[in-house]
Specification:
heterodimer, A: mainly beta, globular, B: 4-stranded antiparallel sheet, 9 strands
């Protein structure tokens, strides 16, 4: 158990709907990352927070995607106007200082 | 970050050592080698990491060649539960994101 929890584990929605995922790292994780993973591929970096500051965003993170980490604790990832290509596993990882990242078990998004 | 090259799949008999190779010929002096694994429907699990010395923990051993251009992850006594995709990643400590490749699918067979 890494202590990183993600909710929901599965989300099914219709194309065009908005979805929001939540990640709760452990309190010691001052760093928080979001990744996306499609079938048969390794995870791809989306964005990174140091405490509440969003320090880096991948070009994969289109303007339909937004992530927040208020108060430097939990984080949310929202996708607006979902598209078929958004179907993937969305992974969250927490880290502290120079320690390795520890991942949650992800939210699997399916777009109908 | 340096790129890594791993075989797409490997087989290993249960109870035998599993040796998973990784090539990282363009690694820089400040880049560490990390290994993660991912069991179906779960998030990646941290296994071990190292800079230039060999490392061992309760899960595995990491052997890094002297020129640091390649490494081997060793699972000393593979079990069926070790069947997973294993990712080798190189990353500098002051960079934050991981670049995952496609990894090696390890099949442990009875």
């Amino acid at each position: 158990d890494t202590g990183v929890s993600q909710d929901p584990r599965h989300k099914i929605t219709k194309r065009g709907q908005n979805v929001t995922f939540r990640c709760d790292p452990i309190s010691e994780h001052n760093r928080l990352y979001w990744y996306r993973q499609t079938l048969g591929q390794g995870p791809e970096f989306l964005t990174y927070f140091q405490n509440e500051a969003q320090l880096e965003k991948s070009r994969l993170l289109s303007d339909r995607f937004s992530a927040e980490r208020p108060k430097g604790s939990f984080s949310t990832l929202e996708i607006q106007r979902t598209e078929q290509g958004d179907s993937a596993m969305y992974l969250c990882a927490g880290g502290q200082g120079t320690q390795p990242q520890h991942f949650g078990d992800g939210t699997r998004l399916s777009i109908l | 970050d340096a790129k890594t090259t791993q075989p797409p799949s490997m087989d290993c008999a249960e109870g035998r050592a599993a040796n998973l190779p990784c090539n990282h010929s363009t690694i820089s002096g400040n880049e560490y080698v990390y290994w993660y694994r991912q069991i179906h429907s779960q998030g990646p699990q941290y296994i071990i990491h190292g800079l230039k010395n060999n490392e061992t923990n309760e899960m595995a051993s990491l052997i890094i060649t002297e020129d640091r251009k390649s490494s081997t992850l060793i699972l000393p006594h593979a079990t069926l539960r070790d069947t997973a995709v294993y990712y080798c990643i190189v990353r500098a400590y002051n960079f934050n994101k991981f670049y995952f490749g496609s990894g090696t699918k390890l099949n442990v067979k009875p």
